Amino acid sequence: MHASTTKLLLVFVSASMLIISHASSLRFHYINHHNFTAKTYPSSSSVHGGNRNPSFALVRRDAVTGATYPSRRHAVLDLVARDNARAEYLATRLSPTYYQPADLGSEVVSGLDEGSGEYFVRVGVGSPPTEQYLVVDSGSDVIWVQCRPCGECYAQADPLFDPATSSTFSPVPCGSAICRTLHGSSGCDDSGSCQYEVNYGDGSYTKGVLALETLTLGGTAVQGVAIGCGHRNRGLFVGAAGLLGLGWGPMSLVGQLGGAAGGAFSYCLASRGPGGSSADDAGSLVLGRSEAVPEGAVWVPLVRNPQAPSFYYVGLSGIGVGDERLPLQDGLFQLTDDGAGGVVMDTGTAVTRLPQEAYAALRDAFAAAVGALPRAPGVSLLDTCYDLSGYTSVRVPTVSFYFDGAATLTLPATNLLVEVDGGVYCLAFAPSSSGLSILGNIQQEGIQITVDSATGYIGFGPNTC
Q1: What is the per-residue pLDDT for 289?
Q2: Which residues on neighbouring strands pair with residue 187, listed in sequence order?
Q3: Alpha-carbon distance 410 to 463, whole Å?
Q4: Residue 286 contacts by C-beta under 8 Å, 6 or more apart in sequence?
Q5: Per-residue pLDDT reduced to its tens digit, 57-94
Q6: Per mean pLDDT, which range of 2-11, 141-150, 183-192, 419-428 is the poorest?
Q7: CB 281 within 8 A of CB 44
Q8: Is the pLDDT of residue 356 over 90?
Q9: pLDDT, mean of residues 93-106
Q10: For residue 444, what is the DSSP state?
């Protein structure tokens, strides 16, 4: 069967190599959980609580907008362009010389076919709830939706939220403590309500009034959540009504829920699949503990960056290809005292970015391991591509992340390559334009990931989606 009309089944066959073969269905599983090096969670008694946690599905962006492209290559080129903007934005925002703190279960949907690496979640806004698709963003704090009356709005899949129809919409006074948490980015409108403004690195922005509102999350109504009601919005959000910030800061949804969520949330991004997958495939997002924190996960300490307190950093000590650990200089992934470098987990970036030295070593080791597979021209920043249209199966090396504390994560084979055209696949890694490393959502797909900021750990596995 031709690669462009089949889906890709990736199965672990050894510690050092993976087989990629064409199949009629796409399913991922861990073989005896051996792709994770076991590590005991430091405080297991604190992570298992009640079972009434908001749970909702994550959905792919193409399921929301229904947009089409002339070819998959066009879709990937759009993805890369948007991904570059996101990576540059993070690098600029996390620079020690420039930081703006003002940028502050349901189904999850992927945006590959829409030129976006983001995932959407369905949230009810107001009372009665108006259903809206929001972008899930672990690197942002502010929750916002486009609102009527709208002086400037981009196209979204759902009708605009109208605060006049909600009985629980309450503008925040400009002198309140909540308004002051915007770190000076807020002002007052003529009625004395708190104004907010968030600017993104690609030129996107949202401006409007900060308000307290009821959000319905996976059937659970949460009252008094501070959200931005955007009356002037511009950007590449493509179909989404706004953004659901899940960052480490106090204005994020997790920060506002406090004791209700315990600082913990779990997500599983359904894999796109290198051969394509159904737009109806959904991942999951769970707020709080109990089922959000699975038994058997590998736990890695979170690293706090005082210069960028919204972001979830992890300590990465090295990378392996096959059975070999790459010979990289010590401290290459270390977060410096002035807030530069480090490794950020980000749901809004698709392709993992690594420092040039690390990327070059990974690329060369990967290319050497696959041997004589026919090369294809690179696609934008994806410079290591192969024409696999004439193959029913190929062998590729595993890629492993070695974290501080002796934990190792070996990626599922589906998380290594992305299809950019009929039968053409590219390594889904790229060099960083700065010292910052970003673990993107392609590498996170299919893995149950739990963030527990209260205890300072992030867990990988063992469940998949």
Answers
A1: 72
A2: 195
A3: 14
A4: 53, 54, 55, 105, 265, 266, 267, 292
A5: 766 555 565 555 656 665 665 566 556 555 655 555 55
A6: 2-11
A7: no
A8: yes
A9: 40
A10: H
Q: Is 126 left (phi over 0), alpha (psi -120 to 50) or beta?
A: left
**Complete DSSP assignment for 400-431:** EEEETTS-EEEPPGGGTEEEEETTEEEESEEE
Cβ distance 379 to 77 under 8 Å?
yes
Predicted structure pTM score: 0.78
d(CA 413, CA 458): 22
Decide if 243 contacts 162 (C-beta within 8 A): no
User: Taking the chain, what is the end-to-end CA distance rounded to the nearest angstrom?
Assistant: 26
CA–CA dist 11, 23 (Å, integer): 11
Q: Of the residues 137, 281, 421, 452, which is catalytic?
A: 137
Question: 327 burial class (0-12, 13-18, 19+ CB within 10 angstroms)?
Answer: exposed
The C-alpha atoms of residue 215 and residue 134 are separated, in whole angstroms, by: 12
Note the maximum CA span of the chain: 69
| Residue 315 tokens, joined | 């300590």
Is 347's pLDDT higher than 90?
no
**Token pair listed for 104:** 């502050």
DSSP state of 128: T
Smallest CA-to-CA distance from 172 within 287, 251, 249 is with 251
Q: CA–CA distance from 363 to each of 368, 385, 396 (Å)? A: 9, 10, 12
- In the numeric block, the tokens 């070695």 are attached to 402
Among residues 78, 281, 346, 421, the one annotated as catalytic is: 346
Bridge partners, residue 293, by sequence: none
Check residues 148 and 189 and name the one with the higher pLDDT.
Answer: 148
Containing H/E element for 367? helix 356-370
Amino acid at position 410, single letter: T
Q: Note if 190 is an active site residue.
A: no
Q: Which residue has the higher pLDDT, 62 or 257?
A: 257
pLDDT average, residue stretch 182-188 = 62
Phi, psi of 205 (to 5 degrees): -160, 165
Could you tell me the domains of the chain? 3-464 (2.40.70.10)
25 exposure class (CB count in 10 Å sphere: 0-12, 13-18, 19+): exposed
Residues forming a β-bridge with 449: 267, 460
DSSP H or E stretch at residue 462: strand 457-464
- Confirm whether 137 is a catalytic residue: yes
Return the pLDDT at 258: 76
